[in-house]
Amino acid sequence: MKVFKFGGASLKNAKGVRNVTAIIQSYKAPLLVVVSAMGKTTNALEQIIQLSFYNKDATAEVNALLRYHHDILKELFPSDHEAFSSVEKIFVELGHALQKDTDFDEYYDEMVAKGELISSVIVHHFLQAQNIPSHWLDARTCIATDDSFREGKVDWGLTSNKIQPLRTILRDQVIITQGFIGQTANAQTTTLGREGSDYSAAIFASTLDAESLTIWKDVPGVMNADPKRLPAAIVFDELPFKEAAEMTYYGASVIHPKTIKPLANKGIPLHVKNFDDPSLKGTVIHECTVDDLPPLIVFKDNQCLISCKVTDYTFISEEQLSLIFHALTQLGLRVNVMQNSAITFSFCLDFRENKVMALIHQLQQHFEVYYNTGLTLITIKNYDEASFDTYRKHKGVLLEQSSRSTLQVLIKP
Ligand code: ASP
Ligand code: MG
């Protein structure tokens, strides 16, 4: 069997749903399909969550989201089709949830999950309307997580047990389910982190020992740089798991960082293909060696550089370093690059404002702290002479670091 994953961009309108259906129809193998919320639905829901949680009126935003989905439904189904009432039911639930009084992260997960539920219901009904035997699955009944809301940690054993019975359904039906969402032991909705649908697809593929996972995207495959920034970027035919995993670590957004590991552990190849033109080869990520990989360039925006300076003529000590890392761990923050000198320890991390400000506040009790926001971290993996020189001479470099294979420069754009 195979697993497919379609992201929000491939399902942003009725044409997208038709296209996804055509792709599903053209594959004969037993298939489990993971879908994300349509278009920018998750961002819209985040706005609704932010407003309603703080008791501000979100009616206009909810209506806009309803209209968006309604327009898609109208293009796909006759007006008396049950798809309308299925989607309406989810919006009614969303309306009820608006009055709930809970912790922000719990509220967020309960609400934001609606985006995936809606899109999967629409795709399921459309497949059925095309006479493709389809089974709608609530992914929450399979993906078991702990109660770390907004970044649920998967209980692999339990999840695998819950997924096994799907094999029977897959014999004669395509399973349509949601990415991104899961459930705690007491049936509360959780999510796996933004853009987590790729990871969901990898969980299904891994626990079902799938032949392969295909992620359908709006790019021709995995490229050595973001073509919007570097138009000369090229598409890889194939990439080793290790290379792809490291790319995502440095911030390449083509695949969610947690996707590779479960697939690599089981040797399940990951195809990245273009949903506008399925005839394109795309990229296969699998166990292989590729000689002479070109430089791989990753831009990571919204970076914050923090420098902790000791002021009493002592030097940065291991004890002080452990203090800094303890604070980072407590706040769940991840360092993207770091550098030490006699009296200053500097590091760069994603600027998640609330958490970073809390960190700075803590560090100020021990150090003189300086920080800079709005920075971009550029990582050049497998650099060559030309790329090494180009990026080191980039305008506005605040910090630079290189190893034998990787150059990183932090710049103020
Ligand atoms: N819809 C979710 C998001 O936009 C999950 C995903 O797209 O992977 O973050
Ligand atoms: Mg998305």
From TrEMBL:
**CDD domains under this entry?**
AAK_AK-HSDH-like
The pathway where this protein functions is:
Amino-acid biosynthesis; L-lysine biosynthesis via DAP pathway; (S)-tetrahydrodipicolinate from L-aspartate: step 1/4; Amino-acid biosynthesis; L-methionine biosynthesis via de novo pathway; L-homoserine from L-aspartate: step 1/3; Amino-acid biosynthesis; L-threonine biosynthesis; L-threonine from L-aspartate: step 1/5
- According to the lineage, what is the superkingdom? Bacteria
The GO terms describing molecular function are: aspartate kinase activity; ATP binding
Q: InterPro entries recorded for this chain?
A: AceGlu_kinase-like_sf (IPR036393), Asp/Glu/Uridylate_kinase (IPR001048), Asp_kinase (IPR001341), AsparK_Bifunc_asparK/hSer_DH (IPR042199)
Matching Gene3D superfamilies, A to Z? Acetylglutamate kinase-like, Aspartokinase, catalytic domain
Family in the record = Belongs to the aspartokinase family.
Q: Which organism is it from?
A: Pseudochryseolinea flava
Write the protein's name. Answer: Aspartokinase
Organismal lineage: Bacteria, Pseudomonadati, Bacteroidota, Cytophagia, Cytophagales
Biological process terms in GO annotation:
homoserine biosynthetic process; lysine biosynthetic process via diaminopimelate; threonine biosynthetic process
Q: What is any one of the record's Gene Ontology cellular component terms?
A: cytosol
Q: Catalytic activity, per the record? A: L-aspartate + ATP = 4-phospho-L-aspartate + ADP
The EC number(s) attached to this protein equal 2.7.2.4
Recite the UniProt keywords alphabetically: Amino-acid biosynthesis, ATP-binding, Kinase, Nucleotide-binding, Transferase
The residues covered by the Aspartate/glutamate/uridylate kinase domain are 2-274
